[in-house]
Amino acid sequence: MERRKVRMGIDVGGTHTKAVAVDNETYEIIGKVQVHTTHDAEEGVAKGVVECFQKCMTDNKIEPDDVIFLAHSTTQATNALLEGDVANVGIIGTGHGNMLNSIAKKHTKLGNLPLVTGRYINTYHRFIDSRKLSKSVVKETIDSLLKEGAQILVASETFGVDDGESESYIGKIAESMGLQATKASEISKLYGLTVRTRTAAVNASILPKMLETANSTQSSVEKTGIKAPLMIMRGDGGVMSIDEMRKRPILSMMSGPTASVIGALMYLRASVGIYFEVGGTSTNIGVIKNGRPTIRYSELGGYRTYVNSLDVRVLGVAGGSMIRASHHKIVDVGPRSAHIAGLSYSAFENPEDIVDPELYFVTPKKGDPSDYVAIKCKNGKKFTITNTCAANVLGLTSEEFYAHGNQEAAKRAMKPLADYLNLSVEETARQILNTACSKLVPVVRELIEEYKLDEDQSVLVGCGGGAAALIPFMGQLMNIKYQIPKHADVISSIGVALAMVRESVERIIPNPTEADIVSIRREAVESAIRLGANPDSIETVVEIDNQTQKVQVTALGSTEVRTTDMMKACTEEEAKEIAADSFGVGKDKVKLAGSTDSMFVYTTEKITKGLLNKQIVTYAIRVLDRKGFIKQQQSSGKVRNGTVGSVDVDFKKVWDDLSTYKGDVIVCPDLFIVVGGRIVEVVGVSNIEQAKGIIHAELSGMNPGNTIVIIGVKNVR
C-alpha cells in the first residue's frame, strides 16, 4: 500500500513552538502539537524545533519516510537584532578610479549601525583600490580588521551588481583564512552602494548565530531519518533551503508574521483584505491585495535595507491586553498583557472559582503605571480582565475559536470593574473593546488609503489565538466583513507547511525592453529552481516601477508538483453564489463574463449618477478559481475574451479603450490576463511596449488556441 505523504510546518514563537502535520494530497490537518520555545537551552530554539516535530511525528504515527516537506519559521534573526546578539563586522570597500574611490570610501563606511533597543552593530572599515587587489594586500587588510575587533567580513564593490569580481576575490581569500564573508552583490542586485552595503553588514552580523542554529537543527533532523530537505521560512512569504539560509539569513527576518498570512490565504475566499495576527501581547497588521500580501523593504533602526518582507505594522494591543482604569474611567487597554503580570484571563476560569470578586490595581513591571486592573477573590485566587474577557462577555466568540472561554466567569470578574465605572457589565466590555480597537482602526484606514483598497470589497482577516478577541468587534465597528480562518491558532504553522519557494530578482533598468523582461524572468525562474522549486510548478509575477526604474520579477514554485487541490472543486453555479455574496447582490444580477479551464470571471452591473444626473454604468468583477476562491476583484473594469494566439489584438483593444490622456502624458490602464489557472498582471507600466514585454514573457510557449480572459481597469491619476 502506498504510504501517505506528509508536509510538516513548525512556527517558532516567543512563547510556544507549534508544529502541524498536513496531508499532502488532501491538505487535511493530521495533527498539531506545541512545546515551550527553548530560548535558554544550550542548543537555543533549535531544541524546541526538534522536540516539536518529533512529538508531532510520534503522536500521529508519522514515519520519517512519510515526510516529503519540512520547514520552520524563526524569530531568531529578528530577535538577534533586537537583543544585539550580533557579530562585529569588518567591511572592505573596493572600486577603481580616483573619483569613484572617493565615493566608494564614503558609501561603504557605515559606522556603528543602530538597533531598535539602543544597541549597535559595530562595523570597521577599510578600502582597497580594485586595481591594487592582491592576495597579500587583502590578507593584510583582513588582519588589520581582525585586530580592530571584526569577527566576520563584508566585501562591497562599486557597481558590484554589474560585475562583483572583486567581491568574490576578497570573499575567497577570507574563506581560505577560515572566516565567513558576505558579498554585498549576492544579497542584493540593486544599485545604491550605501543601502546594499548596509544590508550585507546586517546579514553578516547575524551569520554566526544563525549558522549555529541551522547546523544544530539540520543535524537533529538528519538523525530522525527524515530525508526531505529542511527549509526555512522567509520574511517575504516563501521558503528557502537551509544552505541558502547559511548565506542569506537576513531573508528570514519577519518570517513569523509572514507564515500566518500564507496560512490564512489557504483558507481565505477573498483577494483583498486587511489581515491581523493577534497574539497575547501584540497585533501585526498588513494588507492582502490581488491575493498576495504586500511587500516592502525592511527597515532597521530607521535605516532602509534591500530585504523584502511583509509590510507589517505592529501594535501593542492584543487578546491578552490588560485594562487601565483611573478616576472611574478606562484610560487605556495595553500595552501590558496578562502573562507579563503573571495573571490568568478570567474568561478561562470556572465561574465557581470567582467568589466575591474585588477590584484592585497592579504594576505589571517596574516602571509601569500602577493603574492596571486585576481581580482578587475571597478564596485567594487572582485574575485579570483582558480583551478576550470582554469579547466573551459580549458573546463575540464561539467554540471553534481559540479565544472562546466561559462567558459567566468573564461577567462575574468584570462586575467589580463595571461598578467602579458606574456602567453595566456589557457596556464596560464594549468600552474596553472600543478603546482597544481605537488603536487599530487608524492603522487600517491608513493601509486602505496607502494601498488604494476599495473598502466595500475588503475583508478583515483574523489570525492567531487572539483573533476572536478583537476581529468580530472590529468588523462591527468599521462595518466591514470579517473572517477568522479555520485553525487560526496554528495558522502560522500551516503557512509554513504549505509555503512555496519564492525568489525575487530586481534590477534598475530605465525603459526596460521585452528582452530585458524575458532575461530577468529567466534569472528569477533559475534562482527559484536552485532554491528547491520544481521547474514545472513555477509561476512568475513581473512588476515595473517607472518612478524608481526598478523591474522586479517574483518566481513562486512548490518543492514538488502538486497533483491535487486543497478543496473539492465547486460547480459554476456554486462559484456564482460566492461571487454574488462578494458583490452583495442577488445571484440573478451576476453574469458569467468569461472562463478558462480553471477560472470563472463574473461581473455585475453598477449604476451611479454623474453630472446632470446622468446614469453611469460600470461593471464590478470577480475572478474565482474552481475551488471557489476569489483570486481577483475589481470594483470597476472591462472584460474581453480571446485566445493566446489573438492576445496582441485583444489586449490592444482593451488598452486603447481604457487609456486616458492628460496633455502629452498617457495614463495606462491596469490589465489582468486570466489564462488557465493563472492571472498575469500587467500593472505599473508606462507604455504599450512594456505591457507587451510582460505578456509575451508570460505567455511564451503556450498553445495559441488556449482561452484567455482580459480584464482592464482604468487608472485615474
Care to describe what's here?
The protein has 19 helices and 39 strands. Helix 2 (76-83) crosses helix 7 (193-224), helix 11 crosses helix 12 and helix 13 packs across helix 14 (467-478). The radius of gyration is 27 Å and the shape is globular. The N and C termini lie far apart (61 Å).
Write a concise synopsis of the structure shown:
This protein is of the alpha+beta class and 717 residues long. Helix 2 packs across helix 7 (193-224) and helix 11 (387-393) packs across helix 13.
Question: What distinguishing features does this structure have?
Answer:
717 residues; alpha+beta; 9-stranded mixed β-sheet; 19 helices; 39 strands; 33% helix
| Lateral strand order in the biggest sheet | 3-2-1-4-11-12-27-29-28
Number of strands: 39
Total count of helical runs of at least 4 residues: 19
**Basic shape:** globular
Rg value: 27 Å
Unreliable stretches = 561-567
- How large is the share of residues in beta strands? 25-35%
Q: Percentage of helical residues?
A: 25-40%
Mean pLDDT: 86
N-to-C span? 61 Å
Structural category is alpha+beta
**Major β-sheet, in short?**
9 strands, mixed
